[in-house]
Specification:
Largest sheet: 2 strands, antiparallel
Oligomer: single chain
Structural class: mainly beta
Shape: rod-shaped
Helix content: under 10%
Strand content: 25-35%
Radius of gyration: 33 Å
Number of domains: 3
Strand order of the largest sheet: 1-2
Number of strands: 12
Number of helices: 1
Length: 134
Amino acid sequence: MAQNVVINGVTYSAVPAVDIPKSGGGKATFYDTADGNITSGDVLTGKTGYSASGSVSGSMANNGSTSGTISTKAGTVTIPAGYTSGGTVAISSTEQAKVIASNIKSGVTLLGVSGTLSLPTITQDSTTKVLTIS
């Protein structure tokens, strides 16, 4: 956040950072962190961030890529708390192979597949008690 900075009585408006020359060469840059509100859980383990109250050592786990397979109707994949660089979660290939039109009742769409399975009609003659399957 840019601030007004006063040096030797001169006001400099909207200064985002201040560079100060270092005795061994180079410079030190100072940023206004008054509005900083990070906590250790917002910063990866092994990294350091800065907030209004000073430096913050990270405690967020770096889980890298996360992936998994769902193989049951109620299946889930747990994504651990922390940072993840992405990944995929998919229905297992064994279960995908079962989701075909001929295995799904006609008029029903399951996971984007429209069913074509026709079920037989069963009727009973009320006089002779004979079942007819058609």
